[in-house]
Amino acid sequence: MTDVHIVGAGIHAFGRHDDKSGLDQGVHAVREALADTGVDWSDLQFGFGASEAAGNADAVLPRLGLTGMQFINVKNGCAAGGSALLSGYWAIKSGEFDLGIVVGFDKHPRGAFNPKPSDSGLPDWYGDIGLMLTTQFFGNKINRYMGLHGISATTLGRVAEKAFENGLRAPHAWRREALGLNAIMNSRMISDPLTQYMFCSPAEGGAALILASDRKMRELGLKGPKLRGAAVRTRLTGSFEVFAPSLDVERSPSPTELASKACYEMAGVGPSDIDVAQLQDTESGAEIMHMAENGFCQDGEQERMLAEGETKLGGKLPVNTDGGCLACGEPIGASGLRQVYENVQQLRGRADARQVEGAKLGYSQVYGAPGLSACVILEA
Amino acid sequence: MGLAPIAEGLFEVVGDTPHLIGGRRKSDGRMVFPLPTGPEAANFDAVRLAPEGKLWSFTVQRFRPKSPPYAGVESEADFKPYALGYVELPGQVIVESRIETDDFAALKIGAPMRLKLVPFKKTDGEALSYAFAPAA
Q1: What Rg do the C-alpha atoms of chain B give, in angstroms?
Q2: How far is CA A40 from the centre of its chain?
Q3: 3-class SS at A161?
Q4: Can you tell me the distance from the alpha carbon of A43 to that of B38, in angstroms, rounded to the nearest whole number?
Q5: Interface contact flag, B62 A131, Cβ < 8 Å
Q6: By CA distance, what is A194's nearest residue in B?
Q7: Which of B58, B68, B93 is closest, CB to CB, to A114?
Q8: Which CATH number fits domain A4-110+200-379: 3.40.50.800, 3.40.47.10, 1.20.1290.10, 3.20.20.70?
């Protein structure tokens, strides 16, 4: 089987863009990725596209050219972008195609969304009495973790502080100003122990990656990081996920632990080999827990690691070098691809002010509703 | 209290003690709450859940949730933050619930909790709901 490489990457800055649709931002990202490679749209054999709230991803086709290519829309909750990438990976790995694109874009309304209980198969009373909020899930999950593993609220604040510091150095980030630890800790409490600036916001943006087989890459005279591993896994009975009126007493590994393990096995590397990581940080607590779930530390070690700056730029394992979801916001269709875009920039030495020197292996993990995770390992 | 329950089949009172009603799946014994309704109900046996358990985790809802789905009658101005979380009923299931307390700082994982039935003021009238409270 052939190796698969990412030979081009493009992005539309994340944030709020009142004058542009989600589709506009997706098309922008595709054009940037094409320009990055010199490949023509008409040369692409396939596409996989992800958009959760900004219409159908295949609406890019009339804008970019109706070439007859295979194009498939991917919907897979918060891992839609990661799933599109995985689909492209297998399309080439299988030998069926040797050049294609994955694109993700989105545009969400402002503020927390208000889901209907019936959409999740839940009874109305659950929403009536005030239990139907995603923010509560995040508060509950990190509060238990902190209680069991000795993580302090200050450590949650440090995660957000780092995110805004990094966002300042990433041209595609949304929030591009540093925010001190005190300002983060003292911002409005949303769902204890998480404050306003410890949560990411729904946002807009687009990202696109061009994939090629080893042979095609050489034929075109291109270069790019190799996809060493890619895996998507869903929840088990006994996993703690959003909107759960009950949980099983017997607990089980999270979908992230499953996807992570599968991805390391596929790549033949372990957590200690990774030079830079992009981890799902829907809120500060998620980054803390995902550090352990992806094998980068033992439960509870995060307290020391954050205090010593191990996950900052210049630290032992820089995490969320572009500010992650906290600084970029979370346009669902694009978010997982934004992580991979960031790793591609890091591995190609193009991350400028946020460059991790000599980065050879990049890890990314996107997690979300209704309980799934997608992990990717890239090698320079 | 003569209030109608917020949903049928959610809880029952035996003697003076309230119980939530859960379901045990016939195929594998997995316990869930609430007891499923509709066609799915045929796969479950009703189980009267333990009225006492231990706090598994908790958080505090600090702003008035959006309506819909929230049906509380209070406005943004007179909204009071409420605690909620999960209570582990030993050997059965971990259930989500509002936690009745004004002393949020005193909540601790592992603390004993007891079920009570509480009035809930909805926009279309008052109903009887459930909550766990510290079993001091």
Answers
A1: 16
A2: 27
A3: helix
A4: 52
A5: no
A6: B59
A7: B68
A8: 3.40.47.10
Domain layout of chain B by residue ranges: 11-134
Distance from A83 to chain B by nearest Cα, in Å? 30
Task: Phi first, then psi: give them for residue A286, nearest 5 degrees.
Answer: -60, -40
The three-state secondary structure class of B131 is strand
Interface test with B, best of A110, A114, A125 (most B CBs within 10 A): A125
| Chain A: residue whose CA lies nearest to B7 | A125
ipTM for the whole complex: 0.97
Chain A residue with minimum CA distance to B22: A246
Closest Cα of chain B to A132: distance in Å? 7
pLDDT digits (tens, 9 = 90+) for A102-140: 999 999 987 666 789 998 899 999 999 999 999 999 999
User: At CB < 8 Å, which residues of chain A contact B?
Assistant: 112, 114-117, 123-133, 136, 139-141, 143-144, 147-148, 188-193, 237, 244-249
B34 chain-A contacts, CB cut-off 8 A: 123, 245-246
Q: What is the pLDDT of residue A369?
A: 87
| Ranges of each domain in chain A | 4-110+200-379
- Contact criterion met (CB < 8 Å) for B33 and A127: no
Question: Do the Cβ atoms of A114 and B69 come within 8 Å?
Answer: yes
Residue A344 exposure: Cα atoms within 13 Å on the Cβ side = 25
Distance, in Å, from the CA atom of A59 to the CA atom of A66, rounded to the nearest integer, reads 10
In angstroms, the separation between the Cα of residue B73 and the nearest Cα of chain A is 10
Contact criterion met (CB below 8 Å) for A16 and A206: no
β-strand partners of A378: A227, A362
Q: How far is residue A30 from each of residues A44, A55, A59, A145, A171, measured CA to CA in Å?
A: 12, 17, 13, 40, 17
* DSSP-based three-state secondary structure for A225: coil
Cβ neighbours of B16 (radius 10 Å):
5
Please report, in tens digits, the pLDDT of each residue of chain B (136 residues total).
589 999 999 999 999 999 999 999 999 999 999 999 999 999 999 999 999 999 999 999 999 999 999 999 999 999 999 999 999 999 999 999 999 999 999 999 999 999 999 999 999 999 999 999 999 7
